[in-house]
Specification:
With about 280 residues, the chain is of the alpha/beta class. It folds into two domains: about 190 residues, Vaccinia Virus protein VP39 (Rossmann fold, 3-Layer(aba) Sandwich); about 80 residues, rRNA adenine dimethylase, C-terminal domain (Helicase, Ruva Protein, domain 3), CATH 1.10.8.100. It contains twelve helices and nine strands. It has a seven-stranded mixed β-sheet with strand order 4-3-2-5-6-9-7, sandwiched between helices. The structure holds S-adenosylmethionine.
């Protein structure tokens, strides 16, 4: 496999740090990522930031088709040359955040990407809130972000709760900075988010769920019973709510399980329903 540095040199190009360009070239690492996607031969893949096409090639060998969105126009001739042998790859020149997955795919698809780190959170929000969500996402992200996404109580974060709302998350493997060229400043990790099962929480509660989780995590050191005041509820209402949900109000948001957030959401809906009914 050609090394990223040599490929870029031959086009007289330098990697752009501002676009998060840290390329992978170790075939073992790339296959590990593809394997984690568990692709069936009839499955479609969305790749974010194909870069020089190293991962794209392996995906094209495994999936029925690959749609790859690349923002950097300097890389388009490289991708055309590197991927010329494959007729099941479509390169879209543009910003992934401006692409609508609901129109890109009419059937199910998976996402595989070594993501540009500067927009990891935005990519997650963009794809997870789409109507046609991927059935699985395999993402290379900063290790610290991977740890936060896959956290368990008592170390939950808003990012963990938001990701795990949509599917089961798995920490696949750590990638040392030396696996990339140029080396990023931090270690990375491959994670997967499996959305193929029905969500554990009724999607009708989605908005409410996130409002409550955001309020719960709003002030890191504060107890849940204090942070929930942000919902515009009285202390008495909050106490009732927490008692009904069997949650000790002196706990901090990081200690709650996903099921407890779900119960809390249901109790808020019940309380608000009864307030409306009692008017
Ligand atoms: N997939 C390649 C690999 O693994 O070697 C490159 C990964 S590199 C970490 C991230 C890639 O995303 C770069 O090619 C970069 O130009 C591209 N990129 C950055 N911002 C983007 C955006 N908003 N939309 C699409 N691609 C983007």
């Amino acid at each position: 496999m050609n090394q990223p540095k040599e490929i870029l040199n031959s086009y007289h190009l330098e990697p752009k740090k501002s676009l998060g360009q840290n390329f992978l070239s170790d075939e073992n690492v790339l296959w590990r990522i593809v394997d984690a996607a568990d692709l069936l031969p009839d499955e479609q893949v969305l790749e974010i930031g194909p870069g020089l096409g190293a991962l794209t090639k392996l995906l094209a060998q495994t999936a029925v088709s690959v749609t790859a969105v690349e923002l950097d126009d300097r890389l388009l001739p490289i991708l055309a040359a590197e991927l010329a042998a494959y007729d099941n790859i479509t390169i879209i020149h543009g910003d992934i955040l401006a692409q609508n997955p609901d129109t890109l795919f009419t059937t199910s698809y998976k996402v595989v990407a070594n993501v540009p780190y500067y927009i990891t959170g935005a990519i997650l929000r963009h794809l997870l809130s789409a109507r046609n969500k991927p059935t699985r996402m395999v993402l290379t992200v900063q290790k610290e972000v991977a740890d936060r996404i896959t956290a368990v109580p008592p170390q939950m974060s808003l990012l963990a709760v938001s990701s795990q709302f949509y599917g089961s998350v798995e920490y696949i493997t750590t990638l040392k900075a030396g696996a990339f060229w140029p080396r990023p400043d931090v270690d990375s990790a491959v994670i997967s988010i499996d959305l193929s099962q029905n969500p554990t929480i009724d999607p009708a509660f989605e908005k409410q769920f996130f409002r409550i989780a955001k309020a719960g995590f709003s002030q890191k050191r504060k107890q849940l019973q204090k942070n929930l005041r942000q919902l515009g509820l009285s202390q008495t209402e909050i106490n009732t709510l927490l008692t009904q949900a069997s949650i000790d109000g002196s706990r901090r948001a990081e200690t709650l399980t996903l099921d407890e957030w779900k119960t809390l959401t249901e109790e808020v809906a019940r309380l608000q329903g009864s307030k409306v009914a009692g008017r």
